[in-house]
């Protein structure tokens, strides 16, 4: 196991930092690819009018598939091959795009564009903060997940209560949670990638280096999915709060 107290030369430290930045940008690259694939899938599904097939049962089925992918990711990613992890991430992005095709129906194009731009700005600011800050954000993650779970429970209850104000408060709460989780996830990415790269630099056997390289590739996809989910949820909540709905006429 890698010992953070192991002496490293200045050259090794520089190499570790350079590789850490390279891998982090690769993670962002996968995340951006996922967002782009979701956008293309959404517009394609809308163009070909696939939304007419999105019945309640179909949407529930797609959501269950997405949940299954996330569960497999979180439980098996360290053992999964990078190719399989990548394929699952891309499939997830496409499915999300198909379900998002309804947004084009319900919200104006200007609302979608402005909501996307605002989401990108918020994500970029919080990502930079999480990546650069020296403050420990671990508590932000644990509190965020608790608040998210509570908001989802209230949301389920409000399905039967039909209180618009509760929906608005839930949107604000979930937006705040994912803004915080963006910073938390970026700090987690930096720490995890730095540790893996340092362990790789200290490894002597080729088999250990190969195993760590495989872990880095698989974990890169997992972290890309985490950041993707942060961004997508920020976008959805901003659109729900500020978006102009199309006229039903």
UniProtKB/TrEMBL annotation:
One GO CC term on file: plasma membrane
Keyword field: Membrane, Transmembrane, Transmembrane helix
Chief location bin: membrane
Location within or outside the cell: Membrane
Membrane topology: Multi-pass membrane protein
Transmembrane segments: 27-47, 53-73, 85-106, 112-132, 144-163, 169-186, 221-240
Thylakoid in keyword set: no
InterPro entries, per database record: Bax_inhibitor_1-related
Domain of life per record: Bacteria
Similarity comment: Belongs to the BI1 family.
Identification of the protein by name: BAX inhibitor (BI)-1/YccA family protein
Organism (species): Mageeibacillus indolicus (strain UPII9-5)
């Amino acid at each position: 196991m890698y010992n953070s107290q192991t002496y490293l030369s200045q050259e090794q430290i520089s190499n570790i930092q350079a590789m850490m930045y390279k891998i982090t940008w690769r993670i962002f690259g996968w995340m951006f690819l996922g967002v782009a694939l979701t956008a293309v899938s959404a517009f394609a599904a809308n163009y070909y009018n696939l939304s007419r097939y999105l019945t309640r049962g179909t949407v529930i089925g797609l959501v269950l598939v997405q949940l299954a992918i996330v569960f497999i990711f979180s439980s098996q990613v360290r053992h999964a091959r990078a190719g399989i992890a990548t394929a699952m991430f891309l499939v997830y992005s496409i499915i999300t795009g198909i379900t998002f095709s309804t947004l084009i129906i319900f919200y104006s194009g200007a609302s979608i564009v402005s909501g996307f731009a605002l989401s990108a700005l918020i994500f970029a600011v919080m990502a930079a903060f999480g990546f650069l800050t020296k403050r420990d954000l671990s508590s932000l993650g644990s509190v965020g997940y608790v608040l998210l779970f509570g908001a989802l429970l209230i949301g389920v209850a409000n399905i039967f209560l039909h209180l618009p104000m509760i929906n608005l408060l839930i949107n604000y709460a979930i937006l705040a949670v994912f803004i915080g989780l963006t910073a938390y996830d970026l700090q987690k990415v930096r720490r995890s990638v730095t540790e893996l790269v340092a362990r790789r630099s200290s490894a002597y056997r080729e088999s250990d280096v190969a195993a760590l390289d495989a872990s880095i590739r698989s974990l890169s996809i997992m972290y890309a999915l985490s950041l993707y989910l942060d961004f997508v949820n920020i976008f959805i909540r901003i659109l729900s709060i500020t978006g102009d709905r199309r006229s039903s006429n």
